[in-house]
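== Sequence, structure tokens ==
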Amino acid sequence: MEKKGIAVVAVGGNALIKDKTKKSVQDQFAAAKDTMSHIVDMIEKGWDVVITHGNGPQVGFILRRSELAKNVLHEVPLDYCGADTQGAIGYMFQKALDNEFKRRGLKKDAATVVTQAVVNINDPAFQHPTKPIGTFMDETEAKSRADHDGWTVVEDAGRGWRRVVPSPLPEKIVEAHAIETLLKAGIIVVGVGGGGIPVVINKEGDIEGVEAVIDKDFGSSLLARMIHADLFVISTAVEKVALKFNTSDEKWLDKMTVAEAKQYIEEGHFAPGSMLPKVKAIIEFLEDGGKQALITDPEHIGDALEGKTGTWILP
């Protein structure tokens, strides 16, 4: 098998929940098996891969269970929700990968690294929490949680009240060296789940978890830079990136440079919370020495690597 280099592959929410009516653990594993089979195509072609992933719905499920059980059991802090989902999703991915390796006769191993991402406590995001988490509440409950638990709560377009938390930018992946060491040993790694568990370095120099959410694309981009990845892949719900998406003038892109990507951002082609953070994360990777990046959906990863589809972004 010819070595191609190191690839960081960030898989989105559709890697686990492809159908909103099918959210059980069994349904999620079925979706994970499908996504992992496409990534094994990459591995079979010689790529050493780190698989990163989102965890928004899964954290939401844990928070909801925690809320429902709060009169019986302690509630789960947000950073521990992130750790729980990293372990559970890592287990799904490892099991799917191991079974696929066996089917194909590949002598490979997979391992999950519970991953922390250092953020700056002075990041402006901590002064302006914007990321909704958890379930909707009525005004009375929301204000009670704000008073007693220090939550920041907002009214959401007439649908009820929700808790919002900061979404700071990650500055360091604590386990980057461990991940790099595993890669050098030939192990496929699952890491940086949910962008990484947000932590800060306190006055004593110790790591301390914080109640925040990191964008998984920015966390994945940072890891890709720290381990000097040769390729950064963002696997999402669309085969290619489009200009004027979902309009009669929609134009699908085969390739763009960093300069072109910045121009398209200025022109407002990419939606916040959707394609915009993906493109920005790739720009950060390429401007810090990255060679190439790709955006496509899981089922087209193999074809995209052969230049048949997907959107390639180059320096």
Q: What stands out?
A: The two ends are 28 Å apart (CA to CA). The chain has one domain: 5-128+166-314. The longest helix spans residues 78-104. The first strand starts at residue 5 and ends at 11.
